[in-house]
Automatic annotation (TrEMBL):
Residues 6-121 form the Dipicolinate synthase subunit A N-terminal domain. Residues 149-290 form the Alanine dehydrogenase/pyridine nucleotide transhydrogenase NAD(H)-binding domain. The lineage of its organism: Bacteria, Bacillati, Bacillota, Bacilli, Bacillales. InterPro entries: AlaDH/PNT_NAD(H)-bd, Dipicolinic_acid_synth_A, DpaA_N, NAD(P)-bd_dom_sf. The gene is dpaA. Transmembrane segments: none annotated. This is Dipicolinic acid synthetase subunit A. It holds the Pfam family AlaDh_PNT_C.
Amino acid sequence: MLTDLQIAIFGGDARQLEVIRKLTEQGANLVLVGFDQLDHGFTGASKMDMGEVDFAKLDFIVLPVNGTGPNGEIDTIFSNKSIVITSSHLKQTPEHCHVYSGITNKYLNGIIAESGRGHTQLFERDDVAIYNSIPTVEGTLMMVIQNTDTTIHKSNTVVLGFGRVGMSVARAFAALGARVKVGARKPEHLARISEMGFIPFYLDDLKKEVIDTDVCINTIPFQIVTSDIISKMPTHTLIIDLASKPGGTDFKYAEKRGIKALLAPGLPGIVAPKTAGQILGNVLSQLIKEEMVNRKGKP
Ligand code: NAP
């Protein structure tokens, strides 16, 4: 149980509702910032504005999956008020206060380092990233279906990257009958791609591998689908970029060439917020319990 713990949830999307549900069920006292337009109330949770939060009492802070914006802005779909978190907020928390987010960025790393507080990126954990790849794949299928007039079956689909998301995407598209090629840079990845029945290629050969592509799905958070690559694609190619913002595609060049390229962030929160939120809520409550056990073990 998380009884007597003070946990602040700052903003987020519908996934946070499952996180709130899970943490309140476990007896935590929650401070909700950025939820003023949420009709639903939760026992054990109080809605507040940023200025009303007593940071000195917080044991844990839960940020949205994307962490913050480049200047500390916190996204929320439940409020029109702007919320910004700074290092001075974090410095007011007790030294043991621990911060959770899905991913991080330069700004968030900076305020964490300045304040000296602990920080966990949930999506760095393989279990979270793999579970989360399930709704991500479903969202990708939805986007491809909505943006093509041909079937996935028999399409030439190129998947870039063979990590937690890339592997799940490749498997789902192949299961629907697509001819799936996967680009990676490590020989062991090429071996596994081949073992799983997909067509492997080295990313260095990307330019020649895209000449007959119908759908290109990027999972590499690095400029990989450059103008050079896009110039070799057929004009009907659909590019879905799943990599975290700003993605790995030259979107301006794609538009210039008349190729549809879509950055598709946060798909789990869009297509399956309940499942995606349950994944986060379960792991968060487990991590907070482990953190409490560690703290008790400290002299
Ligand atoms: P991951 O397991 O770390 O996989 C990333 C892949 O990109 C690996 O195959 C990695 O290859 C490759 N890669 C990274 N940097 C590279 C570079 N400079 N050149 C070539 N290859 C490179 O990550 P993941 O969990 O699959 O997530 C992939 C991306 O999707 C992340 O940006 C994540 O934030 C995002 N994501 C988006 C959604 C959404 O809804 N759009 C949902 C979940 C995740 P190596 O192993 O060789 O490094």
